[in-house]
Amino acid sequence: MNRLKTIFSLLAFASLSFGNCKPINGDEQISDLFLYYLLFQALANATEENCTFSPNSSDALFNDEWHLHNIGQFGGTVGEDANVSPVWNQSISGNRVIVSVVDDGLDIRHEDLSQNISVTARGLNLLNGTIYPTHSYPNSFHGSAVGGVIAARGGNNLGVRGAAPCSKLVGVNILEKSTIYTSDEYRAMVNESSRVSISNNSWGSPDGYGWLWPSSSLWQQGVNEGIRQGKSGKGTVYVWAAGNGANGGTIVAPVLVDNTNYDGQANFYGVMAIGGIGQNGKKAAYSESGANLWVVAHTQGNSATAYTTAISTTDASGSNGLNVGGSSGDYSLGNYTKKFNGTSSATPLAAGVIALLIGKYPELTWRDVRELVAYSARKNDSIDSDWTTNAAGLNINHKYGFGTVDAVNLLTRANTWTPITATLITQTELSLSPNTPIPDNDIVTGATVNYTVGSAINYIEYVDVEFTSNHTYFPELRIEITSPSGTKSVLSEPHACVNPYNNSLCSSGNTSIASMTGSSTYRFGLARHLGENPNGTWVLRVFDSSATDTGQINSVQLRIYGR
């Protein structure tokens, strides 16, 4: 305990010294380098607190956290929550599991977060180049809200409670930068990755455009390093917000815009894309669907006509952040907010549940974790017409992925899980270049390409589809691919589109894949075929939903990840 107090004293001393980011005067006796030396020494010798948590203890706003314990307090479906309480009752709280919050900063002095800030992992502020990740602007709050959903301290008689109330947070402030470089993305993915079990990313490509956004090679390199070397070689688990751009209209009159597969970060094989459902268990109108979607978690949803209750969590302290103190029906205390929403809040809920898993079973690898999440997911909204079963027996749905994150199901499945020991094989198949014309204004026949796979893999973990086309208006295309086992995945649907560079409607004749991305090839991701055998003939079909614009399927190439 004395060592811990010493560490916090040094951290406080250094943070006060660096917090205002002012350059030191030349005649000051204690230099920046010396302060950094003290801080680094404290971190090097530190160990994370062994936190204890009683689920029967008090947190003032816990009854508002329906996403953790839904008893119908806001008119939702009883039991439609992350199902964490029975896990807490087994003394599982995510103790010492480090979660990186990659966001717009993290309020490490917050009364309900400070006890759960990691003392072994250094933060990173890409705005000012320090290890101090706290928000720099008064309206920033997002990362602190994310952090609260994951790891607000439980049982301290304050505010809210995180899903993993004894897990530890390390902040990476990337989003306060006005210009984010690919090198920033890389650094955000690998910061302290040897210590980080989970990287939470409630950010991504801009929403509401219907545009294709490839991920950078440096960002991909960072994720690849994290999954291969992170968490002492077991691999960091990356969770990624699926996106909030599905609906460009209203709840009553929706207009389809974004699919999470249009985001080249959310559809990367090294991450799990997380969608959002409301307190009724149904998809939030804004939450993006996609064949790459892994699972969903709870956030603000909607009825047939209106949005329902949002998420209660930590806000930036005092008058900063989203809640300036009782504004617009929020809590009177500005340290908390009950207005957090989007897949931004669903993603950290999934991260918190995963932290419970890793806290109990720390030897699990990133591949074990993602498959456990898939196999344990609960089938929500069971009457939805898109539910089907893949050839491995997994429930799949473009709106919900494999289903809803459920802590009890996850820990139960892990109890009998056989760890994955086989090496991950990545096999890039030969490119097929048929140059097949896509019939114009034809949603019945379409264009078909048969693609044969013969590989050493017999169990799919993920699939990339490299699709090349010169069609002059991509947003009018429907692209489907069917596996040899007969499982169909929709890669793209006809959708509304806005050019993000001039904020005008996308123009006919000039909205090809190449005009959006700089390349005529775009990579789609497939999660839905987990566990299937990839060998045999895959069938790609493309339909054109409107007249005038034309083009071809120039080439197709599959990359299979599996064992």
Instruction: Write down the overall geometry.
Output: globular
Sheet with the most strands, sense and barrel status: 7 strands, parallel
Structural class given helices, strands, pairing?
Answer: alpha/beta
Strands of the widest sheet, in order across it, are: 2-3-1-4-5-6-7
What is the CA-CA span between the terminal residues?
46 Å
Instruction: State the assembly state of the protein chains.
Output: single chain
Number of helices: 10
Mean pLDDT: 93
| Helical percentage | 10-25%
Radius of gyration: 23 Å
Given as residue ranges, the uncertain stretches (5+ residues, pLDDT < 50) are: 1-30
DSSP, total strands: 22
Strand content: 15-25%
Protein traits:
563 residues, alpha/beta, globular, 22 strands, 10 helices
Write the layout of secondary structure elements.
Blueprint: H1 2-18, H2 32-44, H3 85-88, E1 98-103, E2 124-125, H4 142-151, E3 168-173, H5 182-190, E4 198-201, H6 217-229, E5 237-241, E6 271-277, E7 293-298, E8 311-314, E9 336-340, H7 343-360, H8 366-376, E10 388-389, E11 395-396, H9 407-415, E12 425-428, E13 436-437, E14 442-453, E15 460-469, E16 477-482, E17 488-492, E18 498-499, E19 504-505, H10 513-517, E20 521-526, E21 536-544, E22 552-562
Helix pairs in contact: 1-2, 4-7, 5-6, 7-9, 8-9
Give a brief description:
It comes from Leptospira vanthielii. The chain is an alpha/beta fold and 563 residues long.
Task: Provide a descriptive summary of the structure in words.
The protein has about 575 residues and is α/β, with parallel strands linked by helices. Helix content is about 20%, strand content about 20%. The chain contains ten helices and 22 strands. It has helices at about 1-20, 30-45, 85-90, 140-150, 180-190, 215-230, 345-360, 365-375, 405-415, 515, and strands at about 100-105, 125, 170-175, 200, 235-240, 270-275, 295-300, 310-315, 335-340, 390, 395, 425-430, 435, 440-455, 460-470, 475-480, 490, 500, 505, 520-525, 535-545, 550-560. The strands form six sheets. Strands 2-3-1-4-5-6-7 form a seven-stranded parallel beta sheet, sandwiched between helices. Strands 12, 13, 15, 20 and 22 form a five-stranded antiparallel beta sheet that branches. A four-stranded antiparallel beta sheet has the order 14-21-16-17, with no helix packed on it. A hairpin with a 4-residue loop joins strand 18 (about 500) and strand 19 (about 505). Helix 5 packs parallel to helix 6, helix 7 (about 345-360) packs parallel to helix 9 (about 405-415) and helix 8 packs across helix 9. The chain is globular and about 65 Å long. The protein starts with a helix and ends with a strand. The model is unreliable at about 1-30 (pLDDT under 50).
